[in-house]
Design a protein that fits this description.
heterodimer, A: mainly alpha, Sodium/glucose cotransporter, 21 helices, B: mainly alpha, two-stranded antiparallel ribbon, 3% strand, rod-shaped
């Protein structure tokens, strides 16, 4: 059994720091190159729409497979077995919504943001404002979860223990330095490199992530002579849970003996989470804007197919990594390092490295996977930042404040500053939130996307009667219900473990919880849809001709935005 | 990648069809009018029908299939924990089947769209936009 912190030597740290440095240098090089390509608004928001299907497919993968996917799911499988796998399946199946219902139609009928499509036949100001508010809320929540995670991760990956210093940094300082460095890098990628820079950072990350995961998975399997069954048995045995490790119920929908109410709540929570995961992806603004970076809707379809292939393969590899960590690293060593299991994958890399090549190879493998994890964080936060800055500049500044009269140069300039602003706000929030348990924000971002964004996107494309009041009610209704329910849920207050330790966001003395589920989707998704329908019926506004144009554009691609780069 | 300094994108590069207003604006307005008219065209009805005929049943199917999986993970744990081969249980196979169906639907949809949807969509789009003035000015159909 090993533990990173206990055995981290300065050599290992040196390799890790050097790889981090190389990664930063490469991505900054990409940014400098990309900044020379970025002149028009189309260049900044959509990378000139010149990416191929395979390039965009990798970029989507790079955008989507966040640290929560990579480290979080591998860790969840390592600690809870089957339920981590269950979680990853929601993340994958969700892509069918994007493929069948959203990607192509959005590409054909919008320019830069999801709000372009929703507002097409509506009053611009209220709908653009609502779309921008929703985009910013989803992106900043998601961003916060990633950045707080990044701070903790940098400290962990450098293996700095409490009371110890490295390069003059204590573990606490290293956390803050991690957050600030990640924040500054994402601001730089986005404000200078725009969508072109962000996309290439995401492609590099996706290649690194797939390569790293494949390498470690193959090494794990080779230890077991490529017999997945014996890996599974070993994992189940080492977990201490036995066969239950291979069955649902260790983490989600937990059955509490003698407490029928809590058991029912836990099971409904699982269903609620499943709904948010499967319906949220196709409403995430940073995913939606990726469909605009390709020349046409057919390429958008191809890129989603590539993304499905990559993401699916990756989650299959994650299953091997999670079981491998459970079997080879062991639950105790993982929990000792991070109670959520976030370091299971790097710990596994070190373990298999040592198995095949002693301490040196172990150190190299650890540094390699740490660099992959770092790249994973950087590319996802860059995607979230550009989604926020594009929406602020295009939807809010240009359409709402300037009535659509801002010049391209002006819009791009505002977008660059918006990226700096969003980045600065995120850094400050993340530093303050660094000791809070904010992992729930990822699931919340999916729930908001599923409740506020997806219904209005689909209704605007397919429901003739849909109008301004419906869109505004749908967006705010979904947004407020999902955020509101979480505020009064056990994740924010009133949750304690068996020993009475506080597991909620707020201090133990405050308890405002009355909504029993941790995931609001089961209630907020139908509520968001209902608000959109009722809002529509309460207004007489109707634009049948604009609807006809929108649908013809969306389905045929006539008048769709062209690529400016080839 | 090389950069062409193309003009802002919202106007497709088309020959002017009327003399008075700036050509691009006229072409755009013209396209808008023709798009609105196209909505009533029986061929557009057919196009929409072809899209919905695949995506509606496929969406219902994958959603129901996924929901069944989640519901069984919550409420049918006895069934899910039944071992099939060695310690590999139904839960594992059901999960893996979700991957298979996801890949499968994506492949079927792409084949369907290539064969049944794209040709008609392209035909209507070309008609709406008018024939390209220069060969190759079209967006990358073959990409």
């Amino acid at each position: 059994m090993i533990s990173i912190a206990a055995e981290t030597t300065s050599d290992e740290r040196l390799i890790t720091v050097i790889l981090f440095g190389v990664l930063i240098a490469v991505t900054l090089g990409i940014t400098v190159w990309a900044s020379r390509q970025t002149k028009s608004a189309t260049d900044f928001h959509s990378g000139g729409r010149g990416f191929s299907g395979i390039q965009n497919g990798f970029a989507i993968g790079g955008d989507y497979m966040s640290a929560a996917s990579f480290l979080g799911i591998a860790g969840m499988i390592a600690l809870f077995g089957y339920d981590g796998f269950l979680y990853s399946i929601g993340f994958l199946v969700a892509w069918l919504v994007a493929l069948l219902l959203v990607a192509e139609l959005l590409r054909n009928s919008g320019r830069f943001t999801m709000t372009d499509v929703v507002s097409y036949r509506m009053k611009q100001r209220p709908v653009r404002t609502a779309g921008s508010v929703s985009t910013l809320t989803v992106s900043i929540f998601y961003l916060l979860a990633q950045m707080v995670g990044a701070g903790a991760l940098v400290a962990l990956l450098l293996g700095i223990e409490e009371g110890e210093t490295y390069l003059g940094m204590s573990a606490d300082t290293a956390k803050i330095v991690g957050i600030v460095v990640v924040g500054l890098l994402m601001i730089t990628y986005v404000s200078f490199g725009g969508m072109t820079g962000t996309t290439w950072v995401q492609i590099v990350k996706a290649v690194m992530l797939m390569g790293g995961a494949l390498l470690v998975a193959l090494l794990v399997l080779s230890i077991y002579d490529f017999n997945f069954g014996s890996l599974m048995n070993d994992a189940a045995e080492a977990s201490g849970a036995g066969n239950a490790f291979l069955e649902p119920g260790q983490r989600y929908g937990v059955e509490v003996a003698g407490d029928a109410w809590q058991t029912m709540v836990n099971k409904l929570d699982l269903i609620s989470l499943g709904l948010a995961l499967v319906l949220g992806t196709a409403g995430l603004p940073h995913i939606l804007i990726r469909f605009y970076t390709v020349p046409d809707s057919k390429t958008a379809r191809k890129s989603v197919n590539w993304a499905i292939g990559l993401i699916g393969t990756f989650y299959l590899l994650t299953l091997i990594l999670g079981f491998g960590a459970a079997a080879l690293v062991g639950r105790d060593a993982i929990v000792a390092q991070n109670s959520a299991g976030n370091t299971a994958a790097p710990q596994l890399a070190e373990e298999v490295g040592q198995h095949f090549g002693g301490d040196f190879l172990g150190a190299v493998m650890l540094a390699l996977i740490a660099a992959v994890a770092f790249a994973t964080i950087l590319s996802t936060v860059a995607g979230l930042t550009i989604a926020s800055s594009s929406s602020l500049a295009h939807d809010f500044y240009n359409a709402v404040l300037r009535g659509g009269k801002a010049s391209e140069q002006e819009e791009v300039r505002v977008a660059r500053f918006a990226a700096i602003g969003v980045g600065a706000v995120s850094i400050v929030l993340a530093v303050f939130a660094q000791d809070l348990n904010v992992a729930f924000l990822v699931a919340l971002a999916f729930a908001i996307a599923a409740s506020a964004n997806l219904p209005v996107i689909l209704l605007s494309l397919f429901w003739k009667r849909f109008n301004t009041r419906g869109a505004v009610a749908g967006i705010y209704g979904g947004l407020i219900s999902s955020v509101g329910l979480v505020i009064f849920s056990p994740v924010v207050s009133g949750k304690v473990d068996a020993e009475g330790n506080n597991l909620a966001l707020l201090p133990k003395s405050i308890d405002i919880s009355w909504f029993p589920l941790e995931n609001p989707g089961l209630v907020s998704i139908p509520l968001g849809l209902l608000c959109a329908v009722i809002g529509t019926l309460m207004s007489n506004e109707s634009e049948p001709e604009r609807f006809a144009k929108l649908q013809v554009r969306a389905l045929t691609g006539a008048g769709a935005e062209r690529a400016t780069k080839h | 990648m090389t950069t062409h300094s193309a003009p802002d994108s919202s106007e497709p590069p088309q020959p002017a069809e009327r003399g008075d207003p700036p050509p691009a604006v006229a072409a755009e307005a013209d396209l808008e009018a023709r798009s609105a008219a196209m909505h009533a065209d029986p061929r557009f009805d057919e196009l929409r029908r072809r899209l919905l005929r695949f995506v509606v049943p496929a969406s219902i199917a994958f959603f129901a299939w996924y929901l069944l999986y989640v519901l069984m993970s919550a409420y049918a744990r006895g069934v899910m924990s039944t071992e099939v081969v060695g310690s590999a249980n139904i839960a594992l196979f059901f999960g893996l089947l979700q991957f298979v169906t996801t890949f499968g639907i994506a492949i079927l949809y792409s084949r369907y769209a290539n064969r049944r949807y794209d040709p008609l969509a392209d035909e209507l789009r070309d008609e709406l936009e008018g024939q390209p003035a220069v060969p190759g000015a079209r967006k990358g159909d073959d990409a």
